[in-house]
Amino acid sequence: MILTTARVSGHPGVFIAPPPIPTMLRPERLDIVGFVGVAPRGPVDEPVRIGRWSDYESLFGGFEPAPGGPVRLLPYAVATFFRQGGQVAYVVRVAPHGEDAGGSAAATAHFQFDLPTGNFAGLSAADEGTWGGELRLRLLYRVAQHVRGVVESEGALQLPPGTAAPVGSLLRLIRPGSSDVALRWVASLGDRLPRGSTRTVRLDGDPLAAGSIDVDVVTGSLQIDDLARPGASEVLTGLGLRPTHPRWIQAVLSGRSSTSPTPGSPTDRHLVAPIGDWTHLDFTPAPSLMPLVGKRTQDGADRSHLIDAGAFFDPEQVATSWIDEDAGPDDRDPHVGVDRMGRVREIGLLCVPDITWNRYVPTPLPPVRHPRVPLGCRCHACTTADDPEPEFLAAPDKPRDLDARNPVDLADLISRQVRIIDVARARERFVALLDVPNGLSTTQIAQWRSHFDSSYAAAYHPWLALAGGPGGRALPIPPSAFAAGIIAARELERGLPWGPANELARDAVRAEAAVTDAAHDALHELGVNVYRAERDGFRLTAARTLSTDPDYRQLSVRRLMTMLRLTVQRQGADLAFEPNTAELRDRLTRMLTTLLRGLARQGAFAGRSDAESFFLHCGDDVNPPASQALGRLIAEIGVAPAVPLEYILVRIARDPDGSLTVVRDER
């Protein structure tokens, strides 16, 4: 809302201006991708908007594998998306749910400061995971200001101009020429005086003797070092040491971080959070202002081995009671994983790279010697001595995710992918990008494909490998990650109507399955989008959905129709408050016509003129008086989407005289 001042009857007044009426409609962007997967750190089931890889790495961690378990594919998918040219993504980290999964509190590292007053202040890492055990906390007492004050006869303390000592401030008082030190708290302030004047404060405790006195204003400085990320730290300065202070340490930790690369977003969290109620605490230091060192009272834990399908989807009783996408904070349903990401209004694509993740029992292989640890002497004297054992690192365990070659695992995976499509179909705002399970033959892929029929889903094959995986080996990652970046980059560069195909998958070094011409033909007819090996790499050869409806076979058509509906719904919502008159219908007609003509110029429609490309009815023929009396305004829009060119047929005919005629037919 806008506050505007005006003069009424000779005196100024304030009124709330109505929301501005839109004069034109701008196409809603659908290039933002939602990623749901497994990460070693970061908020759980909370969508976080990121604009570059470094944002992801600072909040969710890097490429470290799960302890004794499968490779986390989420970081590789997000990095690949940005490498293909994507610009904005949302990320949701999943965690196990249910009674047998324990709780996030038990998996979060805890700390405490033992206070000189005999109490302690508890803190926890911002989120669960072993990373919290690598935090180091110190609370330093700093002298923010050193001034000379005067104690008046009434016991009040007069401070010079510019002294910042609000209520709740801690003052260290020293008489000139004396070594005695007193710590006192500011209990109240005197009347506000003009700028540049002295300020009088009253202290707690017994009155002080009149006379001059040296005053140190003491504040806290909380330093948090994250040893898991060398060089990463957070320092909070100017902290109040009592609850009455405006920068009380608990209040600051409960707020947002000002050092975040993206202020105002969920990434601006502090590394730690207070536990419990601190209102009965104060951080009174020793007169020497010795710092406090945080003591870790509970290690963090990685619960990746407990993640299963229940971590990715709402419980059934919650999923069947969805509220519309505009539900606010009063919606208390515990949405998780894919269902939580589905409530993000901005995403136009959805990827779940870790959808094959399954529960496992972490059983590390026999340890191997760390390469940097030298071999010790093996003589009898040394082997019998009580020398410390050399340092060992456990070898990484084999993945235990779902194996599509196992019929039971394949059925489980299909049910998860069907559930993803259900979320996309219910929201009608984004397309779910599915990965054809790795290791299937063409016949098996056809059987897998038969379980899906939706224009809100697209499938990609085969899996593509990236260099630099665990152990220096090439790592297969879901092909949807490449597709997400390709689709986003094509929309940003050329507009949404252009089909995202014939694009190179950057950084792909190997395909996990060889696709022959015959297999490619069969998969294309099934609506599976295939990457083919070319001289310069692997290229995405198609952009189809998994719909059997010919009108929505092309991905660009599905996204175009979604964009039109969202644009009208969201940007035309304010028109509901306008009088339903002919003028309003004319204005809406002009707005829609401008939008459709702009799309036509981008090549979105098949016609050669406006009349062939689209029609728009918003007059009295579709808005009769009876309908207007019910408060309705109806606009009928019809478009002829342009279908991407997929085939170039060359016909060769032999004439009776023996000559050859070549005719090219594009369609």
Automatic annotation (TrEMBL):
**Name of the molecule in the record:** Tail sheath protein C-terminal domain-containing protein
**Domain Tail sheath protein C-terminal span(s) in chain numbering:** 547-652
What the entry lists under InterPro entries is as follows: Phage_sheath_subtilisin (IPR035089), Tail_sheath_C (IPR020287), Tail_sheath_structural (IPR052042)
Print the organism lineage: Bacteria, Bacillati, Actinomycetota, Actinomycetes, Micrococcales
Q: Which residues form the Tail sheath protein subtilisin-like domain?
A: 427-545
Organism of this sequence = Pseudarthrobacter defluvii
Specify the superkingdom: Bacteria
Tell me its family.
Answer: Belongs to the myoviridae tail sheath protein family.
